[in-house]
Structures are given as C-alpha cells and as structure tokens.
Amino acid sequence: MSKELDPIRELREDHKKVKDYLLELIDALNKKDAQRSLEILVLLDKLGGPHFRFEEETLYPTLKKFFGEEYYQYLLKAHDRVIAAAKKIAEILGKGAIAEDEAKMLVSVIRSEILPHPIECEGLTLLTDRLSKEELRIIAKNIELSRNENVPLLEWAETIRDKKV
C-alpha cells in the first residue's frame, strides 16, 4: 500500500477534514450543542493522533533541512498549543452542557489556537516538491504505520509523544 499512497495528497486531505471539523465544531458550540460538539471533538481526536504523529516523527524532521531548527521548534510548539486546547475543550464538553460564556471562550480558543495550525501546516506542502522519492516513500510508510496504530491525539500526547504538554 505504501507504494500507492501519495503522502502529499493524504496530508492535504487530512488538513481539509480538520478544517471542516473545526468549522462544524464552532457552529455546534455557537448553538451550545454539547453532544454534537463532543462527537466532532472525538472525530478530531481520532484523526489528529495519527496525523500529528507522522508529522512529528517523519514530515517535520524531513522538511527541517529547508526551514531550520527554529521553525521546527515553532511547529512542535504549535502542536503543544493544539493539544492543550483540545484538553481544555474535552474538559468542558465532558460536563455534558455548555454555558454561553464557555461556548464563546471555546470558539475563541479554536479560532486562535487550533484553526491556524492546519492552515499554516498546509503551506509546508510547498516544500515537498523538493523531497526525493525515497523521502516521500518514508513519509508515506509512516502515515500508514501511524494510521494502522490509530492512537487518538490526546492518548498519543500522553503515552507515546516524547514531549509532554
């Protein structure tokens, strides 16, 4: 399957799904629909774990030769912010109801801490045309491995990720 997997297409499709889920989550929060908000958060958690994992384990280190150590650290810190925000959202939604002020705060958190990341990360695909076929093959293989293990984002962040938030 790795030979058929296009890692750049997969990256873009993941970013599109995340963007769509985040916009749906904002809509559900604005409606104070705790159940739908939690359902969307679970979808994001399931998609985000394998995605962040292959980004941190393979994609970012491979692209670092183009953008350097400072931007690499910036990308890892962006993941930290997303993970921290997801924990905050999960904690509030775990109560089963959303107050007006909580809904507004969570929408603000999504807009400032989460939504910018897939938009910015999508720009990294501009650098992928500089990668060798072997580098792309390795990224594709890591995408497959991460998806096969299927560890959700918050679980991955607590149990597998080297850096804890």
Protein described:
The structure is a single chain. The chain is mainly alpha-helical and 165 residues long. The chain is built from six helices and no strands. The termini are far apart. The model has no long low-confidence stretch (mean pLDDT 95).
How do the strands and helices of this protein lay out in sequence?
Elements: H1 7-30, H2 34-93, H3 100-114, H4 116-122, H5 133-149, H6 153-159
Helix pairs in contact: 1-2, 1-3, 1-4, 2-3, 2-5, 2-6
Radius of gyration: 16 Å
**What is the helix tally?**
6
- Report the sheet with the most strands, covering strand number, pairing sense and barrel closure: none
Number of domains: 1
**Segments where pLDDT lies below 50 for 5+ residues?**
none
Alpha-carbon distance between the two ends: 33 Å
Overall morphology = elongated
- The total beta strand count reads 0
The level of helicity is over 70%
Order of helices and strands: HHHHHH
What fraction of the residues are assigned to beta strands by DSSP?
under 5%
Nearest-integer average pLDDT: 95
Counting helices, strands and paired strands, the structural category is: mainly alpha
